[in-house]
Prior knowledge:
- The structure is a single chain.
- The chain is of the alpha/beta class.
- It has helices spanning 8-11, 36-52, 69-81, 91-100, 102-105, 112-118; strands at residues 16-22, 25-34, 57-67, 84-87, 108-109.
- The chain has a five-stranded mixed sheet with strand order 1-2-3-4-5.
- It has a single domain, classed as Transcription Regulator spoIIAA, CATH 3.30.750.
- Helix content is 43%, strand content 27%.
- It is globular and about 45 Å long.
- It is built from six helices and five strands, in the order H-E-E-H-E-H-E-H-H-E-H.
Amino acid sequence: MVNRGQTFEEAIPPAVTYSRADGELWVIGLRGHLDPEELGTVEDATEEALRRCSGPLVFDLREVGFCDSSLLNHLLRTARRRSVGIFGGDGTVRRLLDLTGVDRLLPPHPDLESARAALSVRPRQARP
C-alpha cells in the first residue's frame, strides 16, 4: 500500500529482509516479487554472506510470492560455490522448483532446522 507522500517504488518491500549468521550457517530472508530487477539486491547479500561466513548458506523463501528463473539460476550458481539450502516458499515457488527440476538439486525444506539437518550443520549454541 502506498502511503501519502510515498512513491510506488518506496512502497515495494525489499527483496532481502534479513541476512545474518545463525551458528555455522548464514541465512538470507527473501521477500516479494523476485525477478531480474530485484536480483541485484539478492546477489549483493549473497556475496556479503560468502565473504563473512565459511559455512552453508540457507535462503528463507517463506515471504516470496513470485520468482522466476533468475532467482533459480542465482541459487544454482551459489550452490556451485558453497552448500546451499532453501526453506519455505508457497505453492507457486514450489511448483517452479518442481517444474524446472531444481527441487532435485536444492530440495526445499519446511523450516530452518530441517535445512540445517540436511546440510549436517550443528544448531546455534545458546549463550550462557
